[in-house]
Every structure is written in C-alpha cells, then in structure tokens.
Design brief:
The structure holds two protein chains of two kinds.
Chain A (H helix, E strand, L loop, with lengths): L1 H8 L13 H29 L3 H7 L10 H9 L2 H32 L5 H11 L8 H10 L16 H25 L3 H9 L4 H12 L1 H17 L2 H6 L8 H4 L11 H21 L1 H9 L6
Helix pairs in contact in A: 2-14, 4-14, 5-6, 5-8, 5-11, 6-8, 8-11, 11-15
Chain B lengths: L6 H8 L7 H26 L11 E6 L4 H18 L2 E6 L2 H6 L1 H6 L5 E5 L2 H8 L7 H4 L7 H6 L10 E5 L2 E6 H7 L7 H13 L3 E3 L8 H14 L1 H8 L8 H13 L12 H9 L3 E7 L14 E4 L13 E2 L2 E6 L6 H11 L2 H10 L4 E2 L11 H11 L4 E2 L2 H4 L2 H17 L4 H17 L1
Helix pairs in contact in B: 3-15, 3-16, 11-12, 11-13, 19-20
Classes of the chains: A mainly alpha, B alpha/beta.
Chain lengths: ~300, ~450
C-alpha cells in the first residue's frame, strides 16, 4: 500500500533526495508498518476466505488455491451450532454483567476518588491487584462454591449457582470490576473539586453527587469501558465452559465447539462459525471506535 | 475528553444519558431493551422446568456427547422410542463431544444428568472406582444379547456393572478394493507379507501406509495393535494399567518392529491430521490405512462400496491375530440420579434390542453392541466389521481409553510423536515413559 506509493515517487524525487536524508529510514518504516498490518490482517482474511469455500474443494486442491466458492458454510454453521439460541444466551450474560460491573465499579471509584479516609489507597490497591490474579487459579474453589450455593427453582433450573446465568454474570462482574474501578477512580479524581463544593452548597446528598454530578461527567469513561467490557465479557469462554453443564445454555463462544466433530473437523465450517461469532465484536468496535481507542489510554493520563 | 467550558455546556452534560447524544442514546436504549428482555427472557428460560424430583415423576435427563448431526439425530430418535414405550419424557442435554470429555470430572462432581454417555474400559472403571457412577448391576440382570467380552468391558473393579454398551467400532487396516484389484494385491497374513506388500506398493508409486498424527491420538492405534500382536492382550492391559514396566524387552520389541515399518508409512506424519491421511487413501495415493471404521467419513457416498479392510496381520504365530481395538460407547448412570427408577428403566431400554434396532435403521456408520438386534440393514462393510469383532477373542478399548487419561495425554502423546520424529533412541524414550508412568500411577 504505502510502500507502493513510495517506490512510485522515488524516480521523480531524485533531485530532491539531498533535502530528505531520512528517506531510507522512511522506506524501512513503511515496509515494517505494511508487514505488521498484513501480519495482523492475514489470519482474519484467511478465515474469511476459508469460510467461503467448500470443504470438498479445499480437501482435493489444498488451501493454497482458489475456487469452490460457496456460502453454505455459513448456513450450515448457523444451523448445526444453533447460533440463534446461543447469541441470545450471550446477550443474557453480557448485558447485565456490563451494566452491573459499571454500576458497582463507579460506586467504588466514587468513594475512592471523593472521600479521603485511611483505607483509600489500600482499597484501590485491592481492586487493582485482583486484576493480576490468574482466573484459572480460582477455578476449583469457585466450582465447589457454586455447586454448594442453592438458587430457587424460578431463577435457575439447576437450582444451584452452578449451571446458571446468574453464576456466570457474577463471575464476570467480579473479575471485571478491578479494572473498571482503577480506570474510573483515576478519571473521577481529575474532576474539578469545585463542582462538588457547589453541589454541597446547594444541598445535594452524597447519592445525588454521585448520580447527578459525577456520573454524567464520567460518560466518556463509561462509554469507553462499556465498549471494552462488552467485548471482553462476550469473548469470555473459560468460565462458561467449566461452570455450565447444559449445552443449551452455553454462550455463543463456547457453542462454537459444536462445529467440531467427534473424529472429524471441517475447518471451513469452523472458520465460518468463527467469523459469525466475531461479527458482534466487530460491529461494536466500528460503531464505538472512538471510545474504544480512548478506553485503551484512559488510565494512562489523568483526565 | 474535554472538560465543560461554559455553564451551558456543563448543564447539557447533566442531562441523563438516555436522552442525550443520538449515537449513545440508541446504544443505551438497545442495552435497556436487552435488559428488559433479559428480565422476562431469563425468567422464562430458567423457569421452564418445573422439576418435580419426586419418585413418581415422568422425567429423566440424559447428558449426551453425541453432538455430530447424525448421532445427535439418532440419539433423539432412540429417546423418543423410550418415551413411547414407557411414557417417561427424556430431556437430552447435548454438549459437544470434546468439551463433554474434557469436562467430565467437573460434570460428574457437579450435578450430572441422571444418565450420561461415556466409554467402556478404564475410563469407566476410573469414575466407577471413585464412586461417581451408579451401580447398574440389576439392569444387567435384565439385559440380553451381549457377549461376555461386552459384559466384561462394562464391569468395574468391584465386579459390578456400571455401563450399558450401545455401539462400537473396530480398528483395522482399510484399503480401496479398486486399487488392490488394479495392482493384484493380496491381503497380508503375516508381518513379512505386509513388508513385501509395502515394498511392492512403493515400486508401484503408492505410499504403502497412510499415516497422520498431528492430533496425537491416531498413532496410538498403531502402538496398540502392534503390542496386541507381539505381546498379547493381557500384557497390553497390564501395561496400560501401569502394572508392567515400559522398559521391558517386550515393549522394546514393539517399538523396534514399528521402527522397521516406519519407512512404509507416509513421511512427516506429525504435520498431518488423520483426515488428510485418509484423503490420501481416498485419492488413491496411499495403499492402506490403519484406522477406525470412521475412516469412511472421508469417502464420498459412491465410494463407500469400494472401501474394504483386513485385521492387522499376525506377528507372532503363538499369539495370533484375534485381538483388536474396538472402542465401545454407551451409557452410565449418575451416582445420585433424581429418579433412580426412571434412570434404570432408561438404561434397560438403551441396552435393549429395540433401541439397537432404531440405531441400525438410522445410522449406517456405527455397529450396535446388542447382538440380538436386527442387523439386516447393515452395509457389507458393517457386516464384515461386526463379524471381525464377533470373532475377536479379546477386545481392547484403545490406548487413551484403557489407561489413565493424564498418562495417555501428557506422556504417551508426546512420547509417540517423539518416536515418530526420531525412531532411533528407543531405550531412552522408554526409560522416560517408565519414569513418568511411575510418578503418575502412584499419585
């Protein structure tokens, strides 16, 4: 791409070459950037390409060939893995988990940022440190706990926290809160103190200061976090696989496994399934790109 | 994000998010809608099972790993058959085959379904021994049509039955009849015959034995059959149970023989899946392939009749060629089913010839375990496979089903792959297997 234009310009620029001593470095830079971009895009494009070809064709001609175009993989994948149902399951888990995470994390962040008491730093440290904990290490204790905690039958047919959406929502909320608290508290600390003084003079309660002063101001941070969290929780695969037992309740990421056969795996079909599963994250990303990128740098500088 | 600069800007920001900003509004509205959906959806989704766990209930649940479209369909038909004969409704919980298998420990210690699909052999005995499976001995007293080999494969270490076999498939050497006719090949009876045949195939421009071990498990079949032919069934089972030493001359001979056959195998096997190896057979590039009956999945419908097989030839005439790998799939009962009576009734039905008949009618790729079933619907290949297993003196279950799962996956897969990569250092490899075996089997 950019390398092509560069080499194209090269002959015309020869008289000016002395004025641009950085030229070779720029060529190298663009070459590097081009290679990295291709390196990142290649697996995705390859998956899309593979998903559009029939297994029979690639089996006999190999994957380094062109032809055998078909859209059947998508139809078959949607049908055999029952994606419709599983997308709904993902929705049941992701939406409440994100809303709950943001609400709880903003509460904690508000307290940490706006009130000074002895345990402020310790509390923030606790939440941030929890980020570093490998989730897998907690698998067995969590599994045992979940199989011991009863739920009423109207909440889950398993009558346990194990194998229920509630359990998965809780797990995701617990693991995502740390990061959100960290980001939100940094953001809230940067809000001007005068706002709160004015609010107090007007007689606003703590709740009002939180809900009507802080929250609206935090909208950019919340939007960025919501984008990230939706992607992360939606992509979460591990907990759904170990804490669920009923195949019909798996979220879409775990149900992707349905496309693997007992002995035989049709890679073209799996590619089609993966592309389908990736679409929601892509949609979210393109809709909310701005927030997404901002979300990555939110904790980096105050404000 | 910029700070509000004017009062108006600041006030504008106090407007609740749900009313401000078009883009964000639609997003939040969507989220709120989904939330509302969730409120009703979750409750509906979760509350649909009024699970009356009383003894008189007419419901039984089955955990099934039959996630491939065809077997899934057959399972549903068999369960329907049970419903019409008994009036008890079956709730099938299908989890994809691999996840089900990897999660079995969690699954059984959590809250398993009343009846679940599982495998015969060590894998069954392991969980039965841990008290995670229900005793099905009184179901067996009502079953008929099973050979002793199948009953033995369903029996735990304490002598009770914990398993009801449903289907099985043999491992054998597959070939295309048309290719063999074209070159005039004969089925080899001994290892020497096999070697001669392989050399001839090489001359004819064929790869004698297709081979792929990217996934780690297919080559276990080669080890199994060589060990069964060279050292016999009992030694094989004892070796798998950790009772025999891997460093013994007997095991060394197995690997030596295999090393002698490796030049006849398709090279670079570690980069090839069994599907790709099977395709080389299907495309007539290879002469034969040692695999399970499922190799037929890689053949088109019109090529199925061209597929034939023979059991792996004899190596030692005192041992013969009568033992083979034929993994048996079937059903087990949870340790504390919600309704034991219903679960047992279901097991009894699953072991009956009625259930077997439904399977035969609907799935041409499996063999049913119940010998009294009507097998007139079998294809020629199925008939031959059933005869082969029927005439077998002993049936092994396949390496990863005959030994501890952790030993099979963490020790044997890398060891066999190492051997295929570098077949020279056999004794070093065997010492390493033996050391790892000791630490795993004593733990």
């Amino acid at each position: 791409m950019s390398t092509a234009t560069l080499t194209g310009e090269a002959p015309a620029d020869t008289p000016a070459a002395r004025r641009r001593p950085l030229r070779p470095a720029r060529v190298v830079l663009h070459l590097f950037l081009g290679t990295v971009a291709v390196g990142w895009l290649f697996p995705i494009l390859w998956a899309v390409l593979t998903s559009l070809r029939s297994y029979e064709y690639t089996a006999s001609n190999g994957y380094v060939s062109l032809g055998g175009w078909t859209f059947d993989n998508y139809l078959t994948a949607w049908r055999t893995a029952e994606f419709g149902k599983h997308f709904l399951n993902s929705l049941y888990i992701t939406v409440p988990a994100v809303l709950l995470t943001l609400f709880l994390a903003s509460c904690v962040a508000f307290v940490i940022a706006r009130f000074s008491w002895k345990l402020n730093i310790a509390l923030l440290g606790l939440f941030t440190a929890a980020n570093l904990l490998p989730q897998q290490a907690l698998l067995i204790p969590l599994f045992r706990m979940f199989t011991q905690i009863p739920l009423p039958a109207w909440m889950s047919d398993s009558e346990l926290l194990y194998d229920s959406y509630w359990g998965l929502i809780l797990v995701n909320v617990a693991f995502q809160c740390g990061f959100c608290v960290f980001v939100l508290s940094n953001y809230m600390k940067a809000l001007p103190h005068e706002l709160y003084e004015a609010a107090m003079v007007d007689g606003a309660s703590v709740w009002r200061q939180y809900w009507q002063v802080t929250m609206p101001l935090c909208r950019p941070a919340l939007a960025a976090l919501a984008t990230l969290e939706v992607t992360w929780i939606y992509n979460e695969f591990f907990w759904a696989t170990v804490l669920m037992r009923t195949g019909d309740k798996f979220p879409v990421t775990s149900s992707l496994n349905n496309l693997r056969g007992e002995f035989f795996t049709d890679n073209n079909l799996v590619s089609a399934g993966s592309v389908l599963v990736a679409i929601p994250t892509l949609v979210i990303f393109f809709l909310l790109q701005k927030q997404f990128v901002r979300g990555l740098t939110l904790g980096a500088s105050k404000g | 994000m910029s700070r509000p600069r004017t009062e108006a800007e600041y006030l504008a920001r106090l407007v609740p998010p749900s009313v401000a900003g078009l883009n964000r509004r639609s997003l939040l509205a969507g989220a709120a809608g989904a939330g509302a959906l969730l409120g009703t959806g979750l409750l509906a989704g979760c509350g649909d099972s009024d699970s009356d766990s009383g003894a008189g209930s007419k419901v039984v649940s089955v955990g099934s790993n039959q996630s491939d479209p065809k077997p899934k369909d057959v399972t549903a038909k068999v369960m329907d058959g049970f419903k019409t004969s008994s009036g008890i409704t079956v709730n099938i919980n299908t989890v994809d085959h691999n996840t089900f298998q990897e999660n079995i420990n969690n699954y059984l210690q959590g809250k398993p379904d009343d009846v679940f699909t599982w495998f015969a052999g060590y894998r069954m005995r392991f969980f039965a021994g841990k008290g995670l499976a229900g005793d099905a001995s009184d179901v067996w007293s009502k079953l008929s049509g099973y050979s002793d080999a199948f009953k033995k494969a369903s029996t735990g270490d304490d002598g009770k039955q914990y398993f009801v076999p449903a289907s099985y498939y043999p491992w054998a050497v597959f070939y295309r009849k048309s290719v063999w006719q074209q070159h005039g090949y004969q089925v080899p009876k001994t290892l020497d015959d096999l070697n001669t045949l392989g050399t001839q195939m090489k001359k004819d421009g064929l790869i004698p034995i297709a081979f792929g071990d990217k996934d780690g498990w297919p080559a276990m079949g080669t080890f199994d059959i060589l060990n069964l032919r060279i050292n016999g069934y009992q030694f094989h089972i004892d070796l798998m149970a950790g009772k025999e030493a891997w460093t013994s001359d007997k095991v060394k001979k197995v690997f030596d023989t295999w090393a002698g056959l490796l030049p006849l195998h398709q090279p670079d096997a570690l980069g090839r899946t069994w599907q790709e190896a099977a395709q080389s057979l299907q495309q007539k590039k290879s002469g034969m392939y040692l695999l399970g009956l499922f190799v037929g999945q890689q053949f088109n419908n019109d090529e199925q009749d061209d597929l034939d097989f023979f059991t792996f030839p004899e190596v030692d005439s005192t041992i013969g060629a009568k033992a083979l790998d034929a993994p048996i799939d079937g059903y087990m009962m949870a340790r504390k089913p919600k309704s034991e009576a219903n679960a047992k009734k279901l097991l009894e039905y699953l072991g009956s010839k009625d259930a077997a008949n439904i399977t035969v009618k609907n799935d041409p790729s499996t063999l049913v375990a119940n010998t009294s079933a009507d097998t007139s619907g079998y294809t020629a290949l199925q008939k031959k496979a059933a005869e082969l297993v029927g005439s077998a003196t002993e049936i092994a279950q396949f390496l990863d089903r005959d030994t501890r799962p952790d030993f099979a996956s963490t020790v044997m897969i890398p060891a066999i792959q190492q051997f295929i990569k570098d077949p020279k250092d056999i004794s070093g490899l065997l010492t390493s297997i033996e050391n790892q075996k000791k630490s795993i089997f004593t733990s």
